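Sharing in case it's useful to others searching the archive later.

Someone asked me privately for the predicted structure of TIGR03619 family F420-dependent LLM class oxidoreductase, so I'm posting the question and my answer publicly. Question first, with the sequence:
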Amino acid sequence: MRISATLYLTDTTIGPAPLARELEGRGFDGLYVPEHTHIPVPAETPYPGGELPPECARMLSPFVALAQAAAVTERITLGTNIALVAQHDPIDLAKQVATLDHLSGGRVTLGIGYGWNREEAEDHGVPWPRRRDLVRDRMALMRALWSDQPTLYEGEFGSVRPSEAYPKPLRAPRKRLAKGPLYGPRTLIGGAAGPGLFAHIAEYADGWMPIGGSGLRAALPVLRTAWADAGREPDDLYVALTGVVPDAGKLAHYAELGVDEVIVQLPPAGDAEVRAALDAAQRHVNP
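And my answer, the predicted structure tokens:
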């Protein structure tokens, strides 16, 4: 089971380059960073975890931060947890993701989600009740640009002409019955367990990125059934838990359930505090 790390990277925390070097040097498998463009005030949408962390308003652009991390590492995965796809122009986002994947040698994992902050999304022109459909549409358009031939896409929310678009993500296309190959980097969808989410994972993603492991024993068989019913290969399903505070028993439990990757939560802090947290977490990487 892979062990990676995440934190809210901001203008006041450790920087992406020194953090990435620390992770790679200590044997961690990846660095994942979240995304918020801004937090409208006063905050009207309640934060899912209780009190809104002040770091949400200070987050670095994940793709700029991960590009800096890519430049100083050779091995670790570079991922988002999660990217707010509905808030991006999909043609531009497809270019950013493919460029990062190209420059890093194919190390990108695209964790995506639907978002929780209605005001932030609406400032981007997102129709909040349709955000899940919008993300699905955006991803289909991006896959058309990532495909190996110029491909027309006409969707409900956007379209693109058959186009030459390079660079291409380096991950090989994955098989899907009836819908053809799945182009692009490994894509994981975040969100709470449920039939709608699992149907979308099986349709256009490579796996699931839930926060923590609550309810995982009951949820994973349901996801695996949805995956199989969609004609996907069982071994292709990837599950990465993010925001985990690790201990040996918890990690053994996740491994027994077939989890592929655990993403350890680090504090949104400066160099010294983050390195101390890495010291504590490293025993799980090199037991």
